[in-house]
Amino acid sequence: MVWVKKAWNFIRDLLGFRINSHYIKNYINDANIKSSIYMSFIVVVLEIWMIFRQLFEYVIPGWKENVGVKMSAFEFLFKYYSYYTLFIVTGIAVFLFAVFYFRNKHYKKSEFIINLVTGSICISWFFIVFLEKLKGQTAIYVSSTYILYALMPILGVSIIANAIYKKLRNQNHSTFAMAVIISFAAICLTFGVKFGYIDFISTSRPKMIICFLTMILFVACLLIWKPYISIIILTSIFVLFAVMLKNVENTEASKRVFLDGDLINYITFLISLTMVTISIYQQRITEAKKDEKLIHDAIFDPLVEANNLQYAVDRINSKFESGMNYYYGRICLFINIANFKMINNQRGFAEGNKFLKDLVHFIKLSFPDDLIARQSDDHFVVFTSQNGFMDRINTLNEHVKDLADGLFVLLKVGGYKPHGKEEPYIAVDKARYACSRIKNKSDVIFNEYDEQMDEKLEKSHYIVNHLDEAIEKGWVKAYYQPVVWSNDKELCGAEALARWIDPVYGFLSPADFIPLLEETRLIHKLDKAIIEYVCREMRRAIDENRTVVPVSINFSRLDFELMDVIEVLETSVSKYNIDKNYIHVEITESALSDNTLLLSNTVSKLRENGYSIWLDDFGSGYSSLNILKDFKFDVIKIDMKFLSNFESNEKTKDILDCIITLAERLGMNTLTEGVETEDESNYLREIGCGRLQGYLFGKPLRLSEFEDRIYNKELIVSKNIL
Ligand code: C2E
Ligand code: MG
Ligand code: MG
Question: Whole-structure pTM over 0.70, yes or no?
Answer without folding.
Answer: no
